[in-house]
Amino acid sequence: MPKVIAGLLLISVYSALTFYLGWGVKQWLVAMGWFRYPVLFWLILCIVAFSIMIGRLHESLRFFSVISNYWMFIFEYGFLLCLAAQLIIWLTPFKSVQIIGSIAVAVLFVLSLIGSYLAYSPVVRHLEITIAKKDSELHSMRAVVASDFHLGVLSHKRHLQRFVSLANEAQPDIVLLAGDIVDDDPRWFVQEGMADVMKQLKATYGTYGILGNHEYYGKKIPEFIKEMENANVKILLDETIRIEDAFILTGQEDRTNKERKPLEDLKPSDNLPWLVMNHTPDDLLTPSKMGVDLHMSGHTHKGQLWPNQFITARVFEMDYGYKLKDHMHTLVSSGYGFWGPPMRIGSRSELWVVDIKFQ
Questions:
Q1: Could you give the CA distance from residue 353 to residue 349 in angstroms, rounded to a whole number?
Q2: Strands 294-297 and 328-332
Q3: Residue 264 three-state SS
Q4: Does residue 1 register a pLDDT over 80?
Q5: Does residue 339 contact residue 354 with C-beta atoms inside 8 Å?
Q6: Residue 196: its pLDDT value, please?
Q7: Dist CA 66 CA 161 (whole Å)
Q8: What is the pLDDT of residues 2-39, one digit of tens each?
Q9: Alpha-carbon torsion 53, 54, 57, 63, what sign?
Q10: Can you tell me the distance from the alpha carbon of 217 to that of 215, in angstroms, rounded to the nearest whole number?
Q11: Does the structure show a pLDDT above 90 at 61?
Q12: Cα 96 to the center of its chain, rounded Å
């Protein structure tokens, strides 16, 4: 019952905010002389606002899922711009709904263009770190690290091909994929033949990945793992593996799995450099105390759309970037893909090239 009440409350608040946004758009359309069919206007707004639910009803309604992704962007920035426009009209001498509304619409359009560019034009970020050599036979190593591809309808095959090209240009020793590789269901990965692209990755020690929360949401983990095998990606499921006499790699399952093993159970006995992937950076204290040398995560997207990064910065001890926590090198990526709208404001699609020196 508490969940039902919370759900109804959430829908009520969302509906009220949607109505406010619709009311603001209506005011502008009226001022422009374009508001002709009120029933049709509110019907379309209602369908678009709840398209995320409609798209989940049946496979044939997938188009509504695509609409819902773009609506997320329009809803967030449309609401902020509508609120800003109302404040300008009420608190300043500028009272023209026609002009101010047109400026707001133009700003929304420009933001969508900028957001699309930042989402589909990934940047390569470089990091150099030094780890105590311990018993490793290596003097140095290069890793390509990426997360949150959300491969599906909008984060598509061409976007994946860009990643493969950029990763191969770096000539890595290992490629590490820190979760949320597919967007819930791996069927788009299969239908688009993305495995053929992924298997083009070239690395001395191979490509390894872990599960993120969205792999669990899709509830097709066995199929996902099989497809990753076809793509030459080894998914680590609460596993610690020794890679030759070079280093130890641990892949934790996401915290969505309440039965995942604690990191203590995955600690190696070898005195080799220890690398850990954990999709959600919810606990950095435990691995730092246990002697992890490099800890890699994603999940946060750095908020993806401004000002959401202020929320992720409050939720997580570290929601983006690199820092040295005690003796543990910590890296949280904003992700290579995106969730929901294929847009980024205040963040950018990225992959990391990490050069590791062993002393």
A1: 14
A2: parallel
A3: helix
A4: no
A5: no
A6: 96
A7: 21
A8: 788 888 999 999 999 999 999 999 999 999 999 999 99
A9: negative
A10: 5
A11: no
A12: 39
Q: In Å, how far are 38, 42, 100, 119 from 83, measured between CA atoms?
A: 22, 19, 12, 26
Phi/psi class of residue 249: alpha, beta or left (left: φ > 0; alpha: ψ in -120 to 50)? beta
* Residue in the block written with tokens 């020794």: 242
Nearest CA among 343, 273, 300 for reference residue 130 = 273
| Residue 237, token pair as written in the block | 């499921």
For residue 161, the Cα-to-chain-centroid distance in whole angstroms is 18
User: CA-CA distance, 349 to 122, in Å (whole number)?
Assistant: 5
The Cα 353–Cα 9 span in angstroms is 44
Task: Please give the helix or strand (H or E) that residue 175 lies within, else none.
Answer: strand 174-177
What's the rounded Cα separation, in Å, for the pair 90 and 88? 6
Query: CA gyration radius for the chain?
Result: 23
Q: What residues contact residue 165 under an 8 Å CB cut-off, 6+ apart? A: none
- Cβ proximity of 151 and 194 under 8 Å: yes
Residues 6+ apart with CB under 8 A from 307: 346
What would the two tokens of residue 271 be? 């005195």
Closest CA to 263 of 196, 210, 217: 210
Q: Is 305 left (phi over 0), alpha (psi -120 to 50) or beta?
A: beta
Q: Phi/psi at 162 (nearest 5 deg)? A: -60, -40
User: Between the CA atoms of 44, 46, 50 and 56, what dihedral angle is there, to the nearest 10 degrees?
Assistant: -50
Tell me how crowded residue 124 is: count the other CB atoms within 10 A of its CB: 13
Confidence of residue 134 (pLDDT cuts 50, 70, 90): confident
Are the CB atoms for 153 and 116 separated by under 8 Å? no
The residue written with tokens 């990753």 in the block is: 228
CA 331 to chain centre: 15
pTM: 0.93
Q: What secondary structure does DSSP assign to 306-336, as a single string?
A: TTTHHHHHHHSS--SEEEEETTEEEEE---S
Question: Nearest to residue 240, comparing CAs of 232, 227, 249?
Answer: 249
191-232 pLDDT, tens digit per residue, is: 999 999 999 999 999 999 999 999 999 999 999 999 999 999
Distance between CA atoms of 31 and 185, rounded to whole angstroms? 44
Q: Where do we find the tokens 């990091």?
A: 127
